[in-house]
């Protein structure tokens, strides 16, 4: 007996919604890393714009150029604000996903057992 196409489509849609909610923490960390890189890039662009802006103190003042640069600066600041909000959402979701995890790292043991791979070579007088 085959499944009707409508039921299959509904089931697939439900799986996609659940997959959208259950995002892999490693993927979230990658998204967070990319967002931080975007924030750094935007911040560098903002400082570049600020460095190139001239204050209208006795210099020939071009209102159109000034308004254009001011508009670019405001757009960069607006995008920077959006990126910080995105980073906050990723941070909160990562914390939510890791809430049940133990914060202490697992104990690391040498491969050769509790005494180590070659305990005789390290002992005084051992050859």
Number of strands: 0
From N to C, what is the helix and strand string? Answer: HHHH
What would the principal axes of the Cα set say about the shape? elongated
Uncertain segments are none
Which structural class do you get from the secondary structure elements?
A: mainly alpha
Cα Rg: 28 Å
The helix fraction, in percent, is 55-70%
Strand content: under 5%
What is the averaged pLDDT score? Answer: 76
Q: Give the biggest sheet.
A: none
Contiguous helical run count: 4
Distance between the termini: 74 Å
List key phrases describing it.
mainly alpha; 4 helices; 127 residues
Can you describe this structure?
By secondary structure, this protein is mainly α. The chain has a domain at about 15-100. The protein is about 65% helix and about 0% strand. The protein has four helices and no strands. The protein is elongated and about 80 Å long. The termini are far apart. The model has no long low-confidence stretch (mean pLDDT about 75).
């Amino acid at each position: 007996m085959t499944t009707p196409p409508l039921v299959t489509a509904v089931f697939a849609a439900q799986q996609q919604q659940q997959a959208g909610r259950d995002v892999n923490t490693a993927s979230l960390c990658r998204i967070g890393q990319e967002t931080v890189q975007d924030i750094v890039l935007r911040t560098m662009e903002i400082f570049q714009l600020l460095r190139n802006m001239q204050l209208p103190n006795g210099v020939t003042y071009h209102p159109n150029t000034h308004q254009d640069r001011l508009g670019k600066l405001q757009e960069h600041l607006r995008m920077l604000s959006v990126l910080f909000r995105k980073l906050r959402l990723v941070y909160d979701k990562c914390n939510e996903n890791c809430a049940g995890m133990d914060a202490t790292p697992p104990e690391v043991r040498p491969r050769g057992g509790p005494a180590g791979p070659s305990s005789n070579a390290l002992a005084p007088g051992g050859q």
